[in-house]
Amino acid sequence: MFNSLKKIINQNISEIKENGLWKNEREIESAQGAEITVNGKKVINFCANNYLGLCNEPAVLKTAKEAILKYGYGLSSVRFICGTQAQHRQLEKSISKFLKMDDAILYSSCFDANAGLFETILTAEDAIISDELNHASIIDGVRLCKAERYRFKHHDMSDLEVKLKESQKQRARLIVTDGVFSMDGEIAKLKEICDLADKYDAAVMVDDSHATGVIGTTGRGSAEATGTESRIDIITTTFGKAFGGASGGVTAARQEIVDLLRQRSRPYLFSNSLAPAIVATTQYIIDNADTFIKDAKTRLEKNTATFRKAITKAGFTIKVGKHPIVPVMLGEATIAAKMAAGLLEENIYVIGFWYPVVPQGQARIRVQLSAAHTEEQVDKAIKAFIKIGKEQGII
User: Fold this and answer.
1) Which residues are catalytic?
2) H runs (alpha helix) in the chain
């Protein structure tokens, strides 16, 4: 019975391996943190989204334990049946206030938030205008929707305006962008996007997964960083990066949008409620955001600036910016793979990225700084990059 399908699957697997695109997962034998154990070896971790260093913050762990004892391990239900606890609604109110939006709705991940958004609020009469480098979760969410699809060239406001003009026949239009692009660490041009949205009567949606808690004066994300807080209509984001690194996502938006999502968003209606421990820890982090974010952001920004300056001075090419995502551009996949392997020998844990994750010829190592990194760890990473870079003839 499986023969025909097996042949197809094996052919796909062979093609992936032959093209050098097979992904091997290294097993981490310790808790997540600035230093982890891989294959019995302690290495410094520069590829996690643990921006604020909260994955193993003692107070966060204590809150999670207390939540399990009080609220249980899981809900075994969806929200509208018997899966809504008081803490779920409290977190929704707190995150919407934190992001300065009307209301919010929780999901098991930001991937689910994006999957459940577009088909719920838009129909074939409408249009979605999306940045060509948006995250896979946005792309998949858009595919589920019957709205007309337009893609504008990355960061190209002239092309966005062209697409807005081309789509004027549609009933409603939604401009969609990452707040921070995960492979480049670039912040979206939200002011210019909002100006065009005002001009052409369009709404704006931002996925702020790599921005919430990370950028903006108080960590409120790309809208705060670009001065567009009151102009964004929909924000999706995650609790699985800066806010503790577990899982969970949210859509914060205009009240009418959240109300409709509660009634019709399929990942919300048909997925188990967010686990009590994650709700409680996220609530704790938001309640103490001024302390957590202020202190951690100071360390994070210092680590980021130190690494960016030193790696550029050494002769590496990086994407210009201030985000703790630092793409070290290497061009070819084989070079990126060898560089990552060499760095692992120096106890620096990074991952190479190449096509199809990034465009052809733009292979890179994506370094991610954390507030948990010490000055010594950052310095060790810089020295390792320089050593292996010279050995590989990159610098």
Assistant:
1) 182, 210, 241
2) 3-18, 58-71, 86-98, 110-115, 118-121, 136-143, 157-166, 190-199, 222-226, 255-264, 266-269, 276-287, 289-313, 333-345, 375-391
